[in-house]
Structures are given as C-alpha cells and as structure tokens.
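The step that takes the researchers longest sounds almost clerical: writing a folded protein down as plain text. Below is the pair of lines this work produces for a single protein:

——
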Amino acid sequence: MAMTSAKRVLTYGESTREPTSSPEELLAWWARPLPYEASDPRAWSYRPYRVKVIEKQRSTDGILLLTFVLVRHATQTPFKLRLPIESAYVWPDLPSTAQLADAGQYGFLFLSDLWAEDNNLSPATLAEAYAEPGNKWPFGGDAPAFSVARLIRAIGDGELRMKMFALLDGHASKKL
C-alpha cells in the first residue's frame, strides 16, 4: 500500500509533534515561522539575554510555558512565554538554552525587540543594560534578502499563502 504524503500546516496544533511508531502516522509538519517571516520587523531577529528559569510547565499539547527573569534586571516581575509558538518574541531552540534548564538554573534566551516593547521595556535600554554582547541573531535576519518570504507570510488568506509557498518551492526546485 502506498503511503500518503505528509502535509505542511501553518499552526503548531495541527502538526504531528511527537515521534510515531509508524511512518503512516506522520501526518503533518509545522511550517514554523522564521524570524524574517514576521510582519513586524522588530521580530526579525533576537538579542541574547541571560535569564534565570523560575518555572517550566508543559501542557498536554506540548507547549512549554517558561517563566523567567532577566539576570541583569532581577527586581522585575517574572515574564512568561509559550514555546515554541511565540516565535515573534523568542527563539525557542538553540542558540537559546533556557528552555533546557530546570527551575533555578540559568540559560540564554534570545528575545526580540518586539517582546521588549510589548513588555514596556525599551529595546535600546535592554540592549545596553541587559543583553549580552554579540549583536542580534540570526545575522542578517532583518536584511532585505528575505523580503519575498516576508511578503508571502503577510498574506492573510492561509490557503493562498500555502499556494504561494508551493509556487516558490516549485520554482526553487526547478533551479537546482
């Protein structure tokens, strides 16, 4: 019997997120937004921050609720982020390491300027006082070279957006 192809989905909840016992059970993979695909340029790249993990809770659907404080700003109320779905705010995988830490441990968390502003923190102040040196990551994540993907991601109609990505994929494979 021929195996059906897995489909690409735009939401985390629709995707197959755990390993399966057979290849037929791998039904859908998440087309996770990349930094430069966000419509807001403040979410195109991230700054590294040292954080102390206060608490980690995993929901039944695999979402990790991470509660943390910025090490260099320890007097504030703890922040909470849902990983991996709040990608406009946080890069939830390496080079971030806070998602791997237990409560009471420290790690790096790569946070966007959009996160800073939405939490009433000035990105300029954060960069000078709280972020680690080394500038933003990924390097060039806010460069004009990514404009095509950003434009496609900005299309509000999900079905049309998927068709546009399919056209782009087809064009790229013909060039190889």
Confidence is low (pLDDT under 50) at residues 140-145, 171-176. The radius of gyration is 18 Å. Helices lie at 113-118, 123-129, 147-153, 158-175.
